[in-house]
Amino acid sequence: MSTSKSKNENRNIKALFSVVCLCIIALGLIVYFSSHTGKVEENQVNEQTTLEVTAEVQNPVTVPETTKAETTTKKEKSKKQTTTEPSTMEVGESNTPYKSFYSYPLGEAVLGGYSEELVFNETMNDWRAHTAVDFKGKAGDDVVAINDGLVLDVYTDNMYGQVVVIDHGGTLVAKYCGLKSATVKKGSRVSIGKKIGTLGKVPCENALDSHLHFETSVDGKNVNPLEVMSKLE
What we know:
Elements: H1 2-58, H2 65-84, E1 110-112, E2 115-121, E3 126-130, E4 133-136, E5 142-144, E6 149-157, E7 161-167, E8 172-182, E9 189-190, E10 195-199, E11 211-218, E12 221-223, H3 225-228
């Protein structure tokens, strides 16, 4: 009995030993393949990243030449428009306010003088400043430019009829009010004595005889037209 029992115990020990060995071998295999698989995946990722970076370097992004050409063309057009469409009249020896020679816009007869003080307006039946000179004329008479200039605007006003605004240089701007039909357009250049329209009516001064309501300003401030044109005696 003791001999049989001893044999069984030896068998059990061997079996246990075999199981332990198998477990150790299995564990080793698991560790080996896990680490090996991680390295393989890491190498694959690194290789893929390297390929992508290489592709980007070999195929850089470029700006289409057409886009650059369109941008350049737009800039050139903008420069041309700025150059060919001046907004002010150049000043010279022949158009210096208070010094140079100026033509009368409509004869020499003055119907109403310049006044910064209040004067009675028969048409409007009120008192107001008259910062202009009214040159007497007949309906249809030619109205001419007092000097060379650049037409800033042409429009119709409820109070002053059709108006032509001209920059005569040296910050001198003149408003020719009460025209019937203008013969110039905004942006056009005029020379001294050139016809700019015909005489019509001034609605806010309709009680007076036919006349041109003529205003002038220097640096944006109203001035006496006769004085700025050196026509005062």
